[in-house]
Amino acid sequence: MSGDSLRIGFIPLLDAAALIVAVDKGFAAEQGLAIDLVREVSWSNVRDKLNIGLFDAAHLLAPITIASSLGVGHVRVPLLAPFVLALNGNAITVSPALHQALAGAADGDLSEPSVSARALARVVAERRKHGEEPLIFGMTFPFSTHNYQLRFWMAAGGVDPDADVRLVVLPPPYMVDSLSSHQVDGFCVGAPWNSVAVELGIGHILHFGCDITARISEKVLAVRTAWATKCEDVLKRLIVALHRATDFINDENNSKEVAALLAAPKRIGVTAEILQRTLNGRLNVTADGVTRTNADYIIVGRGGAARPDSIHAAWLYAQMVRWNQAPLSADSLAIATSSFRSDIFDSALRVSTGAKAVELAGRADPIGTFAGPPFTGDDIAGYVAAMKLAR
Amino acid sequence: MDPALKIVIVDENPVRAAILVDGLREAGYTHVTRIEETTNLLARIYNLDPDVILIDLENPSRDVLAQMFQVSRVVKRPIAMFVDQSDSASIEAAVDAGVSAYIVDGLKKERIKGILDLCISRFNAFTRLTNELERAQTALSERKVIDRAKGILMKTKAISEADAYALLRKTAMNENKKIAEIAQAIVTAAGLLK
């Protein structure tokens, strides 16, 4: 290999697809980039190695990019996200016992998150009345869409995630074990772990992440702000390579080849069949083979989804404020939104490919949450206040 | 040195953990506990109520510790990662060695510097030991293959052991390969021709 050498960290999850395909299908080499993809076991490792320069770039949870730029929860290292690797991709899975309890308490169609959230509130109240232990839910990291989606869903039904249930961080590979050994009653995690739990017969997929938030940045390509300035040209070529990779992934003719690339033991290491189904948004939701399909289950660059949208950053920051992870200030909001860099994305793709910048159709609420007021991105205090739990 | 500090080690590798525990005890730290089982990790840590937590970077449970920084009713004492913006060298050395340290917030960094340094040097020593062991094992298995190839050559060409070895070495030099690689080719070929 020749050209500019880059070390990029990733976690073996489906939403690392664009990075893996960019490297293994040769799109990075086409751009003169020799990329060493380094598989990691924890988000803390990915963040730290990016922070101290052992990685040039990383597959990172979108909220960590913001938290690191704000210096919340850890040392402040300004990061920026010039490319969104995936929107959505999570699901909420519950144990068969909890599923049954929710079905019993439901006042309507349990596949509606507002119905299931109210049912959860009743189950929680019932357990408290009988002096039972609070329900425990697993998620992957404090600064993650998984954490925020679980909290958003519960709170919409009147359940206080910090008082009425217990939320615990669990590494994704341990989620399934924890559900089968009854250490947790449910979890919110990315692909392929929900499918694994369903196939073992120990979990029901209750909701896709896109039932809670229709469109939210899940994983981004993150780089240090200082590095982006120093290596602007390399970064732009990396963006072009990733863009080519998402086009390749979204071409139906390539779906078998893409799944095979991702399934390699050194990459995601899960059977190609599950990966292919999940990329198509077709998931078994119960052990007896009930499937559900939603093309928006996971979006890898489709329809301009790779272009960073600062309103996503604003919504994620609003969740940090809502759940007392970060203080509210205009400066912090500005830091959060300016960490999502559509300008670098545009300039990389215009300059190198002549492609015109992709614009999303205007929406009333770009996030599309199932409850609460539409999010406009400007009045964070008002938005958070409107969501206050009625107690 | 502060022998009263309570130290918890989270490391799934029993040998490395033992080396580290021994090192810390030798240095005078008396409250050193190793957590082997990572299920319910937070509850186990809270029960021990440590001042310092050391965890290996190969452990996916590292993310579980991130929850300790959150304001939460379950946390007895706030924990922070051992980071000192003015001392990035020691962070880099730790990550490089494959270990990470967390301390009770407010604890003076100088009080645990010695622990971290000791931890880094023991982790590095362990890595060196593992590499040496691997090299020794590779050398041993290469030795065995070369002996078998020599035997095959001596039998089929009716030559002495010294000549068989000389032939292996010359072929390896000519083909720009390792002797063990040529020997392996001979053993494989002999197996096919059997």
Task: Describe what you observe in this structure.
The complex is a heterodimer of chains A (391) and B (194). Chain A has 391 residues and is of the alpha/beta class. Chain A has 18 helices and 13 strands. In chain A, the strands form three sheets. Chain A has a six-stranded mixed sheet with strand order 2-1-3-10-4-13, sandwiched between helices. In chain A, strands 7-6-8-5-9 form a five-stranded mixed sheet, sandwiched between helices. A two-stranded antiparallel ribbon of chain A has the order 11-12. In chain A, a hairpin with a 6-residue loop joins strand 11 (282-284) and strand 12. In chain A, helix 1 (17-24) crosses helix 12. Chain A is globular, with a radius of gyration of 20 Å. The model of chain A is unreliable at 353-363 (pLDDT under 50). In chain B, helix 1 (14-26) packs across helix 5 (109-157), helix 5 (109-157) packs across helix 7 and helix 6 (161-175) crosses helix 7 (179-193). Chain B folds into two domains: 6-131, 3-Layer(aba) Sandwich (D-Maltodextrin-Binding Protein, domain 2); 137-193, Orthogonal Bundle (Arc Repressor Mutant, subunit A), CATH 1.10.10.10. Chain B is elongated, with a radius of gyration of 26 Å. In chain B, strands 2-1-3-5-4 form a five-stranded mixed sheet, sandwiched between helices. Classes of the chains: A alpha/beta (391), B alpha/beta (194). The A-B interface holds A 41-45, 48-49, 52, 54, 73-75, 140-142, 162-163, 166, 168-171, 173-174, 178, 181, 183, 324-325 and B 38-40, 42, 57-67, 69-74, 81, 83, 85, 88, 91-92, 95-96, 100.
Topology (SSEs and partners):
The complex is a heterodimer of chains A (391) and B (194).
Chain A: E1 4-10, H1 17-24, H2 27-30, E2 33-39, H3 43-51, E3 57-61, H4 62-70, E4 79-88, E5 90-94, H5 96-105, H6 113-129, E6 136-139, H7 145-156, E7 166-169, H8 172-180, E8 186-190, H9 193-199, E9 204-208, H10 209-212, E10 217-224, H11 225-230, H12 232-250, H13 255-263, H14 272-279, E11 282-284, E12 291-293, E13 298-299, H15 310-322, H16 330-337, H17 342-353, H18 380-386
Parallel strand pairs in A: 1-2, 1-3, 6-7, 6-8
Antiparallel strand pairs in A: 3-10, 4-10, 4-13, 5-8, 5-9, 11-12
Chain B: E1 6-10, H1 14-26, E2 31-35, H2 41-48, E3 52-56, H3 62-66, E4 79-81, H4 88-97, E5 99-104, H5 109-157, H6 161-175, H7 179-193
Parallel strand pairs in B: 1-2, 1-3
Antiparallel strand pairs in B: 3-5, 4-5
Helix pairs in contact in B: 1-5, 4-5, 5-6, 5-7, 6-7
